[in-house]
Amino acid sequence: MGKYTLGIAGNPNCGKTTMFNALTGARQHVANWPGVTVEKKIGVIKSGEDTIDLVDLPGTYSLTAYTQEELVARNFLVEERPEVVIDVMNADALERNLYLAVQIMELGVPLVLGLNMMDEVRKSGKNIDSEKLATLSGCKVVETVARNGKGTSALLGAALDLAKEKRGEWNPLNITYGPDLDPVLDEMEKLIEANGFLTDKVPARWTGIKYLERDEDVIIKGRMADSDLSSTLETMAREVAAHTQKTLNAQPDALIADHRYGFIAGMIKDVVSYPVLDADRISRSDQMDKVLTHTLLGPLIMLGIVYVIYQVTFSVGAIPMGWLESLFGWMGDSVSAALPEGHLRSLLVSGIIDGVGGVLGFVPLIMFMFLMISALEDSGYIARMAYMLDRVFKIFGLHGTSVLPFIVSGGIAGGCAVPGVMATRTLRSPKEKLATIFVAPYMTCGAKVPVFLMLAAAFFPENSAAVMLMITLGAWVMALLVARALRSTVIRGASTPFVMELPPYRMPTLNGVLIHTWERTWEYAKKAGTIILGISILIWAMMTFPQLPQERLDAYDALRAPIVTHLEALDENAPESVRAPLEEQLAAVDNALAEESIHHTAAGRIGTALEPVTMLAGFNWRTNIALTGGFAAKEVIVSTLATAYSLGEIDVEDTDTLAQKLVNDATFSKASAIALIIFTMLYAPCFVTVVTMARESSWSWAAYSVVGSTTLAFGLAVLAYNVTKALS
C-alpha cells in the first residue's frame, strides 16, 4: 500500500486533457497553481491498495520557462519531484512531441511515453515500433487512443510499476552538444558539483545547460544561492555565446535545440516507417489543408462556415425559442392571475420571469451555436483558423497565438472573455499580451449574443444571419485596429515569431460534441439562474422604489375615475366608436402613470440623468439602465430591458415580445439599434473579466481598458447613430 504523485504532461492538442479525464473521471478538483493564474487539476485514483495523485500539467512544447505554463510545469517537476511523469504525445507528430520528452529526460524524471492518437497513425499508413522506441529512449512506451479509452489502463499501470521500481531515483539523460559547447558545459558541471550549487534539486549538467540557454528563472535562483559562482557561470555563458555567434552565426540555445532534434531524429529513424507504395503519399489532413488553408480560398471558406453557423442557429433554433417564449409568457400570465396586484406579483412577473426569462429564452439559439462550434473544435478546424489569421495578425502588431484568445473570447460567437484573457498566458511578449488582453473582450462572447440576436431579429428579420456575421467580423476588425493603435503608441515593440501545431483532422464523436455543448449551455443557463437572477431582482428593486408620492397617485386616480365611470355606464351594446376613444384615454392615463412611476425610481433617475448625453447615440433612459447593468454582466442588458418595458409599459400589447416592444417604441429606432450593437460590442468588459484582466496584467491596465474601451464605444455609437439617421 503506497501513495504516489504522478504528473501528466504533453504538448497542446496532443489529447492530454482527454487522457487525464479518462484516467480520473469525476475524481478531480481544480484550483490555481500557487502564485500564478494557471489552472491546476489534480485527480485522485485508487489502484488496488495504492493511491495516486495525478497532476495535470499545463500543455507546453518545452520546459524553457518562457511562458507561465512552461514555468509552472518545470517548477512542479523540480520542486514537487513526482515519482513518474506520463508524457502524452501525438504519435502522428512524434519528432515534435519528443522534444518535451527529451527535456524531461535530461532533468532525470522517470518517464512513461504515451503514444496517443495511434488510430490516426494507422490511418495515415505509418507504423511506429513502440518496442524499439522503448529500447532506444530507455522509457516505457504505451500505445493509446485517449478519446475512446484504449490503452489508458495500461498507461496508468506502466507508470505505477515504474514509480515502484525507481522509488524516487532520478537518472538524467546526457546529450552531446558539439565541440563548441561540450567543453564549457563539462567545466560548468564540475564547478556546480564542487560547490553543491542547486544540486539538491536538479542535476549539475542541467543547471549548466540552463545558463547556456540564458534561462532567467534559473539564473535568478542561482544568484540568490551563490552570487559569485553564478557570476562566473554567466561569464562563461556569455563568452561561449560570443564565440558561437562569430563562428557559427548561432546562439547556444539554438545549438542546444538543434542537437536535441538531432538526438530525436537518430532515435526515431528506425522507429517510424512508411509503406513502400505510400512513401510519397500526402496525408489526408495535408490534402484538406491545401484547400481549407489556401491563401484565397481558406478565408472565404472560413467566412462561409461562420455564416452557415448563424443561418442554422436562426432557422432551427427559432422553433424551440418560440416554445420557451410561450412558456415564460404562460408563467407570467399564471402568476398574474393567481396573485393580487402588488409588489410580490411585480417581483415575480417583471423582475424574475420577464428578467431571467428574457435571458433563458435564448438558450435554444445558444445551444445550437455551441453544438456546431464544438464540432469544429473537435474536428481540428479551429487551429486552422488560427494558422490562417496569423498572417493578418502580424500586420497589426500581434502574435499568431493571439488568435486563440480571440476565438476563446467569442471570435466565433459564443465564447467567454474570461478564459480568453487567461489564454494570453501563452504569449511570450509582455507587450503583445497586453494588447491582446485589451481587445480580446471585443469578441462576440456568449453574454453579448442574446443582445445581438434580439436586435438582429427585431430590426433586420430578413437578414438576421448576415447581420450576425457582420457583427462578428466587425468585432475582429475593431480588435485588430485598436491593437494596431496600441502597438504603435502605448505599447510599441516588434512582433515575435509564431509556431503552432496543426492537429490532424478527425471526425468529431457525437458523445464529445454533446458533452461540450451541454457544459457550455449549462454554464450559460446556470449564470441566468444565479448571477442574472440576483442582478434582475436588484434592478427590479431599483426600478420599483422609491414609489410616487401619494398626491401624484391621487392625481392619476382623479383622471381615471370619470373615464372608468363613463365606461361602466355604457350599455353593453354600445358601439365601438363610442367605447374605443374612452379605452384609449384610460390607456393613455395608465401609460403616463407607468412612465412617471418608473422615472421616479432610482434606476429611472439614473437613466434619465444620462439621457441628455446618451441621446446623442439614440439611447433612451431604458437603454441606459440596461447598459449600466451590463457593466456587471452583459446578459443583464436583455433582462433589464425586459423588466424596464414590463414595468414602464408603453402603448403595446402585453403579449408582445421584447423585440416587438423595441420596434414599437417611438424613442428607439433602427439607428438606435445599430448604435447599441456597436456600443455593446466595444464597451467595458463585464466585472469578472475586468478582475481577470487585472490578475493577468495589472489593475491600472484593466482600468485603462474599461475607460478607453467605453470612450471608444460611445464615440463610434454616436457616429453610427447619426450617419444611419442621415441615410435613412
Binned strand content: 5-15%
Please summarize the sheet with the most strands.
7 strands, mixed
The overall number of domains is 4
The termini sit apart by 79 Å
Number of strands: 9
Strand order of the largest sheet: 2-3-4-1-5-6-8
User: Quick check: average pLDDT?
Assistant: 83
Low-confidence spans: 31-37, 277-282, 649-655
> Per the principal axes of the C-alpha atoms, what is the gross shape?
elongated
Overall structural class, as computed from helix and strand content, comes to alpha/beta
Number of helices: 32
Radius of gyration: 31 Å
Question: What is the helix content?
Answer: 55-70%
Oligomer class = single chain
Key features of this structure:
728 residues; Rossmann fold; Helix Hairpins; 4 domains; 7-stranded mixed β-sheet; two-stranded antiparallel sheet; 32 helices; 9 strands; 64% helix; elongated
Characterization of the model:
By secondary structure, this protein is α/β, with parallel strands linked by helices. The model is unreliable at 31-37, 277-282 and 649-655 (pLDDT under 50).
